[in-house]
Design brief:
Elements lengths: L1 E3 L6 E3 L4 E6 L3 H4 L4 H4 L5 H4 L2 H14 L2 E7 L10 H5 L10 E2 L2 E2 L21 E5 L10 H7 L4 E7 L1 H14 L3 E10 L3 H16 L3 E3 L1 H14 L1
Parallel strand pairs: 3-4, 3-8, 4-7, 8-9, 9-10
Antiparallel strand pairs: 1-2, 5-6
Amino acid sequence: MIEVPARPYPYSLDPKHTALVVIDMQRDFIEKGGFGDSLGNDVARLEAIIPTVAGLIALFRREGWLVIHTREAHKRDLSDCPPSKIRRGNPSLKIGEEGAMGRLLVRGEPGNQIVDSLAAIDGEIVIDKPGKGMFWTTGLQEMLKARGVTHLVFAGVTTEVCVQTSMREANDRGYECLLVEDATESYFAAFKASAIEMIVAQGGIVGWVAPLAALEAAVLEARADV
C-alpha cells in the first residue's frame, strides 16, 4: 500500500488495484463555443487545470495503472436525454443544437471530444455517460470488477456535479476514492470548495482529498523503498 497525505487522514492506495477516472474533460465544457459557455460560464476556470490533469495522467501512465476517461454524451437521436434536461438552465443553445463545435453534448461531435492534450491512448477506457454519474447505463462497474479495481482516484469537471456524483456512486459501490483537488474545478469557486468539504466531512464520508504533489511524492517514496 502507498500512504498518501490527504484529508481527512492519509489515503491508503493499493497500486495493484487502482484506476484514475478523469471526468468530462471535453471541449463542450472547457472551450469557448461549447455547452458550458452557452450557459454563461467562465470556461477559463476549467481550462486552467489542464496542465495538472495532464501531470496526473502522466503519473498513472508511468506506473502502468489504468486510466479511465468519461464524456457526458448523448445519442444522436437524444433518446437517452430526458426533455427536462434539455430545457433546464435556459441556455442560449440547448443540448443537441448546433454550436460552434457541432451539436452540443452529442456523441461523435467535435465539441464532445476530450481536449487534445488529455486524449486517451491505446489501452485506456473511454466511457460515454448520458447522466452526471459514471455508472448509469455505461457498464463501467463490470469493467472495474473484471480488472479487480478497488481504489479510484478522481479528476475532472465539474467538482460539484459530475465529479462529486461519480464519487458518491463509487463510494456506494465500495470503492475507496481520492479526489486530486488541483486536478478538478468548477465554474464557481465556492461550489468547488463546498463540494470538497462535503467529501471529507464526517471522517471522509465520500472519500479523501489531496493535491497532486502529495500523490506524486508518495508514489516516488514508495518506489524508492522497493
